[in-house]
Amino acid sequence: KTIHPAILQVIIAAFIGILFAVPLIVLTNYERRDDGNIYTKKSAAFLITFIALVILRYGSRQFIVDLDQQTIGLLFYVVAVSYIIPWRIACYIKFRKVWRENSNHVI
């Protein structure tokens, strides 16, 4: 059986994912340490936010009762991809910014 969710459902799922990406982007930062390597800055707020987003994703499944399991799975996949991709792109940009500071490297 092929599942075709409404385009509006997919758009809303993508929008929710993008909203989830915002706190992750804001709270993910990088620093160059004394050994010259670049590391993510430790942040309790980031960890709490990330765990809260995972709990929200899985906890909200019980409140979506009008859709079949395949559609719900697809929509949650769209949510996940919609926050992971922007977050990782932003992480790469932030990493490159730190990498370029006080560095003569070329990628």
Automatic annotation (TrEMBL):
The keyword Disulfide bond does not apply. The chain crosses the membrane at residues 6-27, 39-59, 71-90. Keywords: Membrane, Transmembrane, Transmembrane helix. InterPro entries: CcdC (IPR031306), DUF1453 (IPR058247). It comes from the Bacteria. Pfam families: DUF1453 (PF07301). PANTHER family: PROTEIN CCDC. This is Cytochrome c biogenesis protein CcdC. It comes from Bacillus wiedmannii. The lineage of its organism: Bacteria, Bacillati, Bacillota, Bacilli, Bacillales.
